[in-house]
């Protein structure tokens, strides 16, 4: 009976998530702002308190910061109007755009560029010094819908002639920090994640630098997009866009390791769509 009750509750929750939203408010009193679920949720919300304070002051509305369990639930929540503003990775944005009526409006600028890189790391004792050495190894990725801890590293490997299933075993561990920890602990010999997060993990000494090394860097790709519901009130959308593009608050920028934010459009992410096609990724199945 206990198991049946648990099953019923899980089914009800799933139905609630999948149920269509009813006329989402175009001008909500409280804005639900979703952060990318690529690190520990409580830590993300704590670190983004300056962003919450800034948005509440500039937009004149209450703000609830949200961290979903994974990329898929974030996409579904955006799809059904349960999130108003969301910080997506490039790939998760492309996936969300195919399901939800959303639009990108800003991406951060770091070191004067609206782009970023991924890194491929290896356990220091795994005898892996280049991408070709990955053959026969276990490779850790973050989330299937992650750009910098899945799509980009996998593309780097494929370009080096190292292909999933044929040449290595892939494992999805959920987040960037989990990738680094699994490689450091030897649970996987190789992993892929964002260069920015990699550097942060080292700075905060969450990963022993002596146990892991970088074996490859990707080329530059468009930064993570901030997006919003397309059905929000036009005046509110303009205000949100302006609030981000004009953001100068040092506390907010420090957390993002950013110089500021620049306007973006959907076309900026066509390179991500093309990369997914080259890898034969079925966006609809993710």
Report on the structure:
With 286 residues, the chain is α/β, with parallel strands linked by helices. The chain folds into 2 domains: 28-111 and 222-283, Periplasmic binding protein-like II (D-Maltodextrin-Binding Protein, domain 2), CATH 3.40.190.10; 117-218, 3-Layer(aba) Sandwich (D-Maltodextrin-Binding Protein, domain 2), CATH 3.40.190.10. It is built from 11 helices and 13 strands. Strand 7, helix 6 (147-159) and strand 8 (169-172) form a beta-alpha-beta unit. Residues 1-21 have low confidence and may be disordered.
The low-confidence runs, each spanning 5 or more residues with pLDDT under 50, are 1-21
Average pLDDT reading: 89
Q: Percent range for helical residues?
A: 25-40%
Number of strands: 13
* CATH-level-2 architecture of the largest domain: 3-Layer(aba) Sandwich
CATH fold annotation of the largest domain:
D-Maltodextrin-Binding Protein, domain 2
Number of helices, counting only DSSP H or I runs of 4 residues or more: 11
Fourth-level CATH superfamily of the largest domain: Periplasmic binding protein-like II
What would you call the structural class?
Answer: alpha/beta
Biggest sheet record: 6 strands, mixed
Strand content: 15-25%
CATH C-level of the largest domain: Alpha Beta
For the termini, the CA-CA separation is 33 Å
- Principal-axes geometry comes out as globular
Radius of gyration: 19 Å
List the helices and strands in order.
Answer: HEHHEHEHEEEEHEHEHEEEHHEH
Q: How many distinct domains?
A: 2
Strand order of the largest sheet: 2-1-3-12-4-13
